Amino acid sequence: MNPTQQEALRQQHKISLVIAVAMAATLPIYAAVLELWKRTATSQIGFIEPVEAVKIRYGIFLVAVACVFLTRIIKARVLAHQPTAPASSEDSIQGAIQRLMSAFLVTYTLADAPAILGLAFFFLTGETRTFYMLSVISIYLFVVHAPRYDQWEAWIASRYSIGTTHWS
Asked: Could you tell me if residue 166 is inside a domain?
């Protein structure tokens, strides 16, 4: 990659890191909202009958497990797009960088879904344990799909048959 392309990749990676930190920071915010609501709510939290809550819980866990698989599948599909421009083309490398960013955004959005569903379940039932279990799934997905510069660089290099150089 030429220096302009390297800088474009670095810039997009920095943006993705800021987004990743912001999205991961939502988990403690969700937990704080949940705990504050639980402690200060003047009325009963949750209005779903226990029998219905069990069905909803199973459904939410199914969606959370689906998110684990969907993050991998969708990321692979987004990144599998074949370049149409020549490898040396500026547009082609820029398109690859955008695909990396798109794959990151989709996977991180799906990674946040289990925790959001857990928070919604809390508001429906008043039960906190499910939220915390689903948050662990979100944390796992955040860690697994965290944007890593060396992986982004290697992916572009493999797609366009260009050597990688590691910069400090």
From this structure: no
Name, in order, each residue with C-beta under 8 angstroms of 114's C-beta and a sequence gap of 6 or more.
60, 63, 64, 67, 134, 135, 137, 138, 141
pLDDT for the residue 40: 87
Answer yes or no: are the C-beta atoms of 6 and 94 closer than 8 Å: no
Predicted structure pTM score: 0.85
By the 8 A CB rule, do 106 and 20 touch?
Answer: no
Flag whether 9 is in a domain. Answer: yes
Euclidean distance between CA atoms 104 and 78, whole angstroms? 10
More confident residue, 93 or 66: 66
Interhelix angle 90-125/149-160, nearest 10 degrees:
140
| Structure tokens given for 14 | 């920095």
**Rounded to 5 degrees, what angle do the CA atoms 109, 16, 92 make?**
105
Q: How many domains does the chain have?
A: 1
In a domain, 122, yes or no: yes
